[in-house]
Amino acid sequence: MSWLGSIGRFGLFCLAFFRASAGRAPPLGLTVEQAYRVGVQSMPVLMLISTFIGTNLSIQGYNAFQPIGGQGLVGMFVALAGVRELAPIISASIIAAKAGTEMASQIAVMRVRDQIDALEVMAVSPHWLLITPRLLGIVLVMPPLTMLSTFVMVAASYAAAVWQLDLNGATFLEFLLLASAPMDLLISMGKALCFGALICMISCFNGFFSEGGAEGVGAATNRAVVMSAVLCVILNYFISEAVYG
Amino acid sequence: METLAQLGQFGMFTLRVCWRLIVGPHNLPDLFRFIWTIVTRCFAPVVAVIFPFGMVVALQGLTIFALFGAERLLASLVSVTVIRELSPVLSAVLVAAQGGSSVAAELGAMRIKEELDATEVMGVDGLAYHVVPRALAIVIACPLLHLVGCVAGVGGAFFTAVVLKGERAGIFWAELFFLTEFSDIWGGFLKALVFGSIIGLVSCYLGYTTTGGAAGVGLAVNRTVVWTVTIFIVTNYFLTSALFGGLG
User: Fold this and answer.
1) Between residues B126 and B145, the one the model is more confident about
2) Entry pTM
C-alpha cells in the first residue's frame, strides 16, 4: 500500500507548491538558468538520439509495409509514428533522463545536507525557490525542443529513405504531407508541455522526500526517471486516444 | 583529450571485467539474487510502458491501413515495430533507468563509503565480487525483459485493435503468426543482449569510478542513464541495418 501513500504525498506536495508559489513572482534569474540547463545542455543528446530514431523509423516502416507493396507509405508512417508520437515521447524520455535526474539529485543532495531545512528556517519557501524556476524552465523549453527533435527526426528518416532504401524522395514527402497537418505539430507541442510539467513535478517530489545519505540520493534519482518515463507514456496514450482516436 | 582518456579507461575496465568473468572467482549467489531483483523491479515498468505503446501503435497503424481497407494487415506493423524495435529498445531504456541506475547508485555509494576499498584490503577482488555479478545480471535480465515486453506490446496492440476498435481476434492472431518471421524473434533477442551488455558495462564503470560524495553518486546515476541510452540507440541503428536488411 506504500504506493497509495506516495500518491497522496505527491498530491499534498503539489498542493503545497501551488500554495507557496501562486501569485508570487518567480525567481527570474534561476528560471533562466534552469531553462538553459534543460534546453541547451540536453540538446546535443536529444538531437543525436532523434537522428537515429528517425533512420530506424524509415527502415522499419519500409519493412512493415513491404507485404502490401506500399513502400511509399514510409512517409506516412514517419508522419504518424514520428511526428505525432515518437518525437514528444522521445524528447520527454531524454529530458527525464538528463534534466529530470539532475533535478532529483540536486534537490536530494540539498535534503541530505539539510539545506532545505535551512531554507525553511530562514522563512524562504523551498517550494517556491526550488521548484518554481525548474517548472517554468522546463515548460518553457520543452515545446521548442520537441519541435527541433521532430525536424531532426523527419530529416534523418528522409535521408535513410532516400539514400539507404533508395525510395523516391518526392513520394516520401508527398505521403508525409498527406498524413500530417500543422495541427499535429501544435498537439505534439501541447503533449511536450504536459510531459515537461509532469517530469519536473515527479523529479522534484522524489528529490524532496529522499532520505538516507548517498544511497538515498541514488535511489531518489533512480525512482524519478522510472516514474516519469512510465507516467509520460501512459499519459501519451490517453492524449493520443482523446485527440486522434 | 579527457574524453579519450575516459574511453581508454573504460576499455581497460571492460577487459578486466571480462577477464574476471572468465577466470573467476565466481559469485553465483549474488548473480542470481541480482537477476531476480532486476527482473522483478523492471517487470512492472516494462509492462506499464510497452503495453500503452502497443496500444498507440495499433491506434495509429489502423489509421494508415484503413485508407486501403487493409486493417487485417495491422499485425505486420505490430510484429515489425513491437518485436523488432520497440520492445528491445524500450525494455533496454527501462533496464537502464531502473536496473542500470540502481547498480551505478549502489556501486557509487560503496565507493564513497570506501566499502570497495575495504573489500580490496581484505584480499577479496572487488571486480569479481561486486562488479561482475551486477554486470552479468543486467546482461541476462535484458533478454528476459524483452520477452515480457513483446508479450505486453502485442497484448496492447491486441487490446486496442480487437477490444476497442472491433477488429476480428482470429484474423489478428492468424496474421501475426503468419507475418512474424523467426529472424524477427532472434534479431530482437540479439539486440536485447547487446543493449544489456552496454548497460551492464557502462553503469558498472560509472558507479565504480564515482568520486565526490553524495553529489557524485547522483551525477553517476544521471550520467549512466544518459550515456547508456545514447550509446544503444546509436548501436540500434547499425544493428537494425545489419539484421533486417535495411539496404533496399
Assistant:
1) B145
2) 0.83
Nearest-angstrom CA–CA distance, B242 and A105: 39
**Cβ–Cβ below 8 Å for A45 and B226:** yes
In chain B, helix, strand, coil percent, each to 5? Answer: 90, 0, 10
Helix/strand/coil for A181? coil
Task: Count Cβ atoms below 10 Å from residue A184 Cβ, excluding itself.
Answer: 18
Q: Which residues of B touch A76 (CB under 8 A)?
A: 64
Secondary structure of B185-197 in the HEC alphabet?
A: HHHHHHHHHHHHH
Question: In this predicted structure, what is the pLDDT of residue B194?
Answer: 92
pLDDT attached to residue A1: 55
Task: Give every residue of chain A whose pLDDT is below 70, as ranges.
Answer: 1, 67, 69-70, 245
Residue A8: how many other CB atoms lie within 10 Å = 10
Name the grid cell of B22. 572468465
- Whether ipTM > 0.85 holds is no
Query: Does A56 sit within 8 Å of B215, measured CB to CB?
Result: no
Question: Are B80 and A167 within 8 A, CB to CB?
Answer: no
- Residue B129's pLDDT band, with cuts at 50, 70 and 90, is confident
Report how far residue B87's alpha carbon sits from residue B70's, in angstroms, rounded to the nearest whole number. 25
B197 CB-near residues (< 8 Å, 6+ apart): B139
Residue of A nearest to B63 (CA): A80
Chain A nearest CA to B177, separation (Å): 14
